[in-house]
Amino acid sequence: MSSRWSFWVLLLLLLSACGGGIYHTVRPGQTLYRISRTYHINEATLARVNHITDPTQLRAGTRLFIPGADRVRAVVVVKSSAAGNRSAVKRPPIKKKTTAVAAQKQKRQRYTPRAAVKKTPVKRAARSTEIKKLQWPLRGKIVRSFSATAKAGGGKGIEIAVKTGSSVRAAEAGKVIYSGDGVQGYGHLIILQHENDLFTVYGFNRRNLVRQGDFVSKGEKIALSGVPPGGGVPRMHFEVRRGKRAVNPILYLP
User: Are 220 and 172 in contact (CB under 8 A)?
Assistant: First the structure.
């Protein structure tokens, strides 16, 4: 069996046996404790995976990675009485006396600019969400670029030249679905599973620091870089995959 097919057999077996994870957007009134209880995950683990040092400072709009979850769940929202009292005593609307000329001028000022600026933010937001940006696993010179026909390290990706023993970090929060040296051509290999059928692959490691089944946060140290199984210049092999399809990692990196 070729190294390329052994990689896919391994990946498919791992996917059938392991759960992934989803992202939960924090709403006003939701706490880390209630979110952890809703998704049946330890609160301390959830805080560690998402780099949260003070759960009391959790802000609305924060995207939390929920390891092992298969769908977004409804979390109970706690509304404080103080907030309710403040909302109940909001100041009444103030009526302003304006002349007919001033009213018409204000109407023009309100209407014209809004029509001009409404479309721009919507288009920019749509473009910014097309591709999720990942973090560089490490920094160094790219000595091999992505190619649709390349078979670097048994797969398709990029190779980054670095000193042996450099820290390799997770490009995104996710679950370790493989950590070992059983795939030909990759040496010590780590595969992380992220949301939306996204995977990142880290090969040529001298030493893996995480085990299969671990959940890691974005930027967490997961391995030490090494050299390819066949020897040569110290470097790291990095892939990004959408399901079965290898994609150019550069498109996902800042």
Answer: no
Neighbouring C-beta atoms of residue 241, cutoff 10 Å = 20
- DSSP secondary structure letter of residue 129: T
**Phi and psi of 9, rounded to 5°?**
-60, -45
Domain ranges of the chain: 17-87, 141-252
Hey, what CATH topology would domain 141-252 get? Glucose Permease (Domain IIA) (2.70.70)
How confident is the model over 191-216, as pLDDT tens digits?
Answer: 999 988 899 999 999 999 999 999 99
- On whether the pTM is more than 0.90, the answer is no
130: burial class by Cβ within 10 Å (0-12, 13-18, 19+)?
Answer: exposed
3-state class (DSSP) for residue 36: helix
Distance in Å from the first CA to the final CA of the chain: 36
Residue 173 to residue 179: CA distance in whole angstroms: 16
Cα angle: 39, vertex 45, 47; to 5 degrees: 90
Burial 170-186 (b: 16+ CB within 10 A, else e): bbbbbbbbbbeeebebb
